[in-house]
Write a structure and sequence with these properties.
428 residues, alpha/beta, four-stranded mixed β-sheet, 14 helices, binds pyridoxal-5'-phosphate
């Protein structure tokens, strides 16, 4: 049995049929933007391996920080023990995040950080004597992870609500913000969609602990970019109704949208933020849930006084070391310039796709480029032709999209955009 045969027979891949997994590539090396297959074929990782590898794979500064940490202490439990990497990473995060958002809970993946944020919200409301507030509000088209509670706040149609109906707790959905990122804002609550949120919070706020959103960019739920004005309005409505605001910056954080965080476009500060994906520059799994002081002290000063969560690998030192080195890169390189250059080159080079039949929209925000198709895109076709185009793309639903590493050169990016436009042309 070849390694690929074994894989096809025994290994589950994400959202992939184990009986019919489709084309699969055996990758033996990932360096910079390049993935190398066992037969030497190279492909640019235009997905940054799902938003993560923003500085490129196998970054020398990150891997050497990890090697040093590995020799010292790969892991110790975080209950009753602490360590320099956790403390040092804490310093970096506190200085990067807005004032007042500074009580850090480390966890092992994005979905878990969402679970922790939702728990914190319920515990905070309980601490304030509002124990009926156990439900959540969100917008349609969102994605917050695959664990049970996170799944319940994902889009009810394109998420997994149909399949798990009955097993998922009911949450409250309002329509996706109507005004796109680059369109003109209007304060009319019907036209901007905030009216629906207001109506929900007015009638159900006694049951709602928090509103959870991906700020400005909805990722896996549809690659939609909405107007920062909506976020500002949502913040004000949450405040008026005693509802906490949780921002899921797992995909948008660390420069991807052109701002350090998605929330910066709106100058909004949440009560709780979720970070993940690019936190370690794509080198090892790690996430964090960061709460404001009032949320943290509210939980701390009431029964049971602790956040009811404690991952075994909480604050894993190896992951902390990777994250510190990754965050250092944001100081050492001009990431704003890199992202801006990627955005303007994508504007130029994806524009021709607008004229292709079957293309509904082409949109770019920061280092995210999307070609939205009328029909569903066949992921297997993209995977099949990747070795030939030298570009690794993983389209889903109606979208052919990329979020390349910030270090992608102009020549490399031209290959990515060409592969996207040609895929769009062949997809109708
Ligand atoms: C990927 C993602 C998650 C889940 O993170 P995992 O590390 O895959 O558990 C949650 N929210 C958003 C916005 C994401 O993009």
């Amino acid at each position: 049995m070849t390694p690929l045969d074994f894989d096809a027979r025994h290994l589950w891949h994400p959202y992939t049929n184990i009986s019919d997994p489709g084309p699969m590539h055996l990758i033996t090396q990932a360096k910079g933007v390049w993935l190398t297959r066992d037969d030497g074929v190279r492909m640019i990782d235009a997905m940054s391996s799902w938003w993560c590898a923003v500085h490129g794979h196998c970054h020398p500064a990150i891997t050497s920080a990890m090697q040093a940490q590995l020799a010292q202490m790969p892991h110790v439990m975080f209950g009753g023990l602490t360590h320099e990497p956790a403390i040092e990473l804490g310093h970096r995060l506190v200085s990067m995040l807005p004032d007042g958002l500074d009580r850090i809970f480390y966890c092992d993946s994005g979905s878990v950080s969402v679970e922790v944020a939702l728990k914190m919200a319920v515990q905070y409301q309980q601490a304030k004597g509002r124990s009926e507030r156990t439900e959540f509000a969100t917008i349609r088209g969102g994605y917050h992870g695959d664990t049970w509670k996170a799944m319940s706040v994902c889009d009810p149609v394109n998420g997994m609500h149909g399949l798990f109906r009955g097993a998922l707790s009911i949450q409250h959905f309002v329509p996706r913000p109507t005004i796109a990122f680059d369109k003109d804002w209007t304060d009319d609550p019907v036209a901007n969609g905030l009216g629906a949120l207001e109506a929900l919070l007015e009638t159900k706020n006694d049951r709602i602990a928090a509103l959870i959103l991906e700020p400005v960019v909805q990722g896996a739920g549809g690659m939609y970019f909405y107007h920062p004005g909506w976020l500002r309005g949502a913040r004000a409505l949450c405040d008026a109704h005693g509802v906490l605001l949780i921002l899921d910056e797992i995909a948008t954080g660390f420069g991807r949208t052109g701002a350090l965080f998605g929330m910066d476009h709106a100058d909004v500060v949440p009560d709780i933020i979720c970070l993940g994906k690019a936190l370690t520059g794509g080198h090892i799994t790690m996430a964090a849930t960061v709460a404001s002081e009032p949320v943290a002290s509210g939980i701390g000063e009431s029964e049971p006084g602790v956040v009811m969560h404690g991952p075994t690998y909480m604050a894993n030192p190896l992951a902390c070391a990777a994250a510190i080195a990754s965050l250092d890169q944001f100081k050492q390189r001009d990431w704003r310039y890199e992202v801006r250059e990627i955005a303007s080159q994508m504007e130029r080079e994806l524009a021709p796709a607008r004229k292709l039949p079957g293309v509904v929209d082409v949109r770019i925000l920061g280092a995210i480029g999307v070609i939205e198709m009328e029909g569903r895109v066949d992921t297997a076709v993209a995977h099949q032709r990747a070795p030939e185009t030298g570009v690794w793309l993983r389209p889903f639903a109606h979208n052919i999209y990329c979020m390349p590493p910030y270090i992608t050169t102009s020549d490399e990016l031209s290959r990515v955009t060409a592969a996207m436009v040609s895929l769009a042309g062949d997809m109708r």
